[in-house]
Write a structure and sequence with these properties.
Alpha-Beta Plaits, single chain, 16 strands, alpha/beta, Aminopeptidase, 382 residues, M20 family peptidase
């Protein structure tokens, strides 16, 4: 096996990669759509079966099953390299039918085309290349998860378990629009704030009412005031609802809170401040509850992760990605879980794309092959 065999084969598979990407983009797989997410998983399982790569499912009753596959190195008891990614999207049922996979002027479009079905296709073909030609210095494991877009409530234990047992983690979230990869990310916590008040007729019996919406308004102002842009801390109440009717004081209200932070040490301080706001009744007689619905931890670059990035960067230069750098992202990802357990991790290795989570999401089609080749060379030199 030579490096050229791997990189030449990957170049020859561009259309096959596009065909697999079309298949999985054209399957709806919103995070809560277990049937759809599992259908995408089944399409990848079919690829593994066709190429003789062992795979298995880790079942989950609520969310999509985790898909595991492995390209072994015979006789090796070394820690594997982990190639990781998620197949769920933020889009609802019917989105793939409304705007199926298309390619226009060198860009591919469709729900999840960049975030991150193309990264999964890339991982699968890189693993297939090593299965076909050998030469991998370590075993290669693949993990295809199901619920990253909602904080990986079911997948986090598997991600942490596989991360702990790996020598390095490559998470193939989309490459940045700049062509860079991601070497640092914010942490994030997604929370539900529920407030109880008391209903009363807002004309005939106003004084007997206790407005949960009024209380929510006070709390939103206080929560937003915790934002500290200089430290990379942002608070956003992105969804609100409540009330019974326009002529009734609101007996209930709720808000969805998004917290992002950079420094792991800031988590406890900001959460304590939020909990104090939740416990304070600005409108007397109201009560409130706070529930964490999902959480990501930051990706903080360790010395070992920096070395891993430099090795990847050198591999990328060899295939013509000469300007590739590492950059920081305010978005969260599963790579934070593997970085937090101490495994060298880099993220954003997938094909280049942008405008994720919108109907304009796109993928640069010509980035698929060189990004796959760079990952393969990085594994060879790992």
């Amino acid at each position: 096996m030579s490096e050229a065999q791997i990189t030449d084969w990957l170049a020859s598979q561009k259309q096959a990669m596009i065909d697999l990407l079309r298949d999985v983009v054209n399957i709806d797989s919103g995070s809560y759509d277990k049937e759809g997410v599992d259908a995408v998983g089944a399409r990848f399982e079919r690829h593994f079966a066709e190429h003789g790569i062992p795979s298995r499912r880790e079942a989950n009753a609520t969310f999509g099953d985790a898909i595991h596959a492995e390209v072994a190195k015979p006789g090796s008891n070394e820690k594997p390299v982990l190639l990781m990614g998620h197949r769920d999207t933020v889009f609802g049922k019917g989105e793939a039918g409304r705007r199926p996979f298309t390619i226009t002027d060198g860009r591919a479009y469709g729900p999840g085309v960049a975030d991150m079905k193309s990264g999964l296709v890339m991982n699968v073909f890189v693993a297939t290349a090593f299965h076909k030609f050998g030469g991998n210095p370590h075993p290669i494991k693949l993990l295809i998860t199901s619920d990253e877009e909602i904080g990986s409530p079911s997948s986090r234990p598997a991600i942490e378990r596989e991360g702990r047992s790996a020598r390095a983690v490559f998470n193939s979230e989309p490459g940045r629009p700049t062509g860079n990869v991601v070497t640092g990310r914010k942490g994030g916590i997604f929370m539900h704030l529920g407030i109880t008040g008391k209903a009363a007729h807002s004309g005939a019996n106003f004084a007997a009412g206790i407005s949960a919406i009024g209380e929510l308004a006070h709390k939103i102002v206080q929560i937003h005031a915790l934002t500290d842009l200089d430290k990379g801390i942002t608070l956003n109440v992105g969804l609100v609802s409540g009330g019974q009717s326009v002529n009734t004081t609101a007996p209930y209200a709720e808000g969805q809170i998004d917290l992002r932070y950079v420094d792991p040490a800031d988590r406890a301080r900001i959460m304590a401040a939020i909990e104090k706001i939740v416990a304070t009744s600005y409108v007397p007689g109201t009560s409130a509850t706070l529930t964490i619905k999902g959480e990501f931890v930051p990706v903080v670059q360790s010395a070992e992760s920096k070395t891993l990035f430099e090795n990847y960067q050198a591999a990328a230069r060899q295939v013509g990605l000469t300007t590739l750098q590492g950059e920081f992202s305010g978005g969260c990802a599963d790579s934070g879980f593997t970085a937090a357990v101490g495994t060298p991790t880099i993220c954003g290795l997938g094909p280049v794309g942008g405008l994720a989570h919108t109907s304009e999401e796109y993928l640069e089609v010509d980035s698929i092959v060189p990004r796959a080749q760079a990952l393969a060379l990085a594994i060879l030199r790992g």
